[in-house]
Design goal:
With about 200 residues, the chain is an alpha+beta fold. Helix content is about 55%, strand content about 5%. The chain has a four-stranded mixed β-sheet with strand order 2-1-3-4, with helices on one face. The chain starts with a strand and ends with a helix. The mean pLDDT is about 95.
Length: about 200
């Protein structure tokens, strides 16, 4: 039985989205980041980093949400995971790019501009994050001006991975990047994405 540890209020959101795309049934453990559940002996035996998500696929244990998604999409021979090695490489490229260029940066920016209460925001942190977010958005805009999708002619695991990480960008004005804006909303308009988002926002 497939088991997923990690709340939709964490990077497990992208795994939940993918599971919906693949039609997978799984046991879901709603562990929040840094929660007491992630520090138990049993959980640390699965993930010594005490982070979420963690996947247990009949005894095969895997952490890191990007790796989990690549594994699941490839294992289940999903069209979201391209068979062409060049398109496969592009999926990895964009997924790894996102973890370096936008993952923490977009979180820091949104938290310190719109997500947290005004008294809990740090303008300096927001400004520093935005200096990194802007050029990364420029890169995405340029890529999406050449192709409607990041890796090949159709929506793929690369689009899901990057768009899921940009969930927080849905709460800010990105109209300055029209291709990015349209792409992001198209990705999140998919039925599986809507279901994952509802789990996070309920």
């Amino acid at each position: 039985m497939l088991k997923l540890y990690g709340s939709a209020h964490s990077r497990a959101l992208r795994v939940i989205w993918l599971a919906g795309e693949l039609g997978l049934k799984y046991e879901h453990k709603e562990f929040l980041p840094r929660s007491p559940e992630t520090r138990t002996t049993d959980y640390l035996a699965l993930n010594a980093n005490a982070r979420v998500p963690t996947l247990d696929d009949d005894g095969f244990i895997l952490s890191e949400s990007m790796a989990i998604n690549m594994y699941l999409a490839k294992k289940h021979k999903s069209p979201l995971y391209p068979a062409d090695p060049k398109l496969e490489a592009l999926c990895w490229q964009w997924s790894l790019w996102e973890t370096d260029r936008l993952d923490r940066q977009i979180v820091d920016y949104v938290r310190n501009t719109v997500a947290e209460k005004p008294e809990d925001r740090d303008a300096a942190v927001a400004a520093a994050a935005w200096k990194q977010v802007q050029p990364a958005f420029d890169v995405l805009e340029g890529a999406l001006a050449k192709s409607p999708w990041l890796a090949g002619p159709a929506f793929s695991i690369s689009d899901l991975n990057v768009a899921s990480a940009l969930y927080r960008a849905l709460s800010i004005d990105v109209s300055r990047w029209p291709k990015l804006d349209a792409w992001l909303r198209t990705c999140w308009d998919r039925p599986a994405a809507k279901k994952a988002r509802a789990m996070r926002e309920h």
